[in-house]
Amino acid sequence: YAKKAGRDNYKLFEPYMAEQESEQFDSEQTLSQAIAEKSAFSMLYQPRVDANKEIVGFEALVRFTNPSGLFVPPSQFIPLAEESNLIVPLEELIFELVFAQIAQWKKTFAVLPRVSINLSGKHLLSDGLLPFLKTAMQRYGIRGEWFEIEVTEGVFLADIETCIDVMQKLHSLNIAISIDDFGTGYSSLNYLKTLPVDILKIDRSFVNECAVKEEDAKICSTIITLAESLGLSTVAEGVETAEQFEFLLSNGCSEFQGYHFFRPLSADKVTQHLGQLNELSVS
Ligand code: C2E
Ligand code: MG
Ligand code: MG
Ligand code: MG
Question: Contact at 8 Å (CB) between 239 and 258?
Answer without folding.
Answer: yes
